[in-house]
Amino acid sequence: MAVVGLHHVQIACPPGATGLLRSWYGGVLGMSELPTPAAIAARGGVWFAAGDRQLHCGVDAAFVAARKAHPCLLVDDVDAVARAVAEAGGAVRWSEEIAGVRRFHTDDPVGNRVELQQA
Predict the structure, then answer these.
(1) Is the entire prediction scored with pTM above 0.90?
(2) Residues of the chain with pLDDT > 90: what percent?
(3) How many domains does the chain have?
């Protein structure tokens, strides 16, 4: 028995926030939206492709932003992504804690922490 991979990461969002998340993950970060199965779509939320993995944003009526737990998205040009985030009004908090890794943290429009790392 062995874990052989990671299919998706799910983050929470408040009711009514899917438009904001589409604009940010789809628009600012350029992630492609994925179709959500009908039975799940009825609950709200939105899914995105992250390379061969997925990021699921699920509606939670008792939403509290994740300030520590976070997805780390690998990007092909971390500097360009940092500029896009800053131009959209997002914070860009560079981190040099891991030698040889270019990365920064930001927050999505509902306050969830997100890490962006050079692939």
Answers:
(1) yes
(2) 98
(3) 1
Q: The CATH number of the domain where 62 resides is what? A: 3.10.180.10
Q: Which domain holds residue 83?
A: 9-118
User: Has residue 88 been placed in a domain?
Assistant: yes
d(CA 18, CA 56): 11
Alpha carbon distance 52, 118 (integer Å) = 16
79-86 — which CB contacts under 8 Å span 24+ positions? 81/29, 81/116, 82/116, 84/28, 84/29, 84/30, 85/28, 85/29, 85/116
Q: What's 42's DSSP letter?
A: T
Cβ neighbour number for residue 10 with a 10 Å cutoff:
13
**pLDDT tens string 27-82:** 999 999 999 999 999 999 999 999 999 999 999 999 999 999 999 999 999 999 99
Residue 4 domain-assigned (yes or no): no
Residue 1 covered by a domain: no
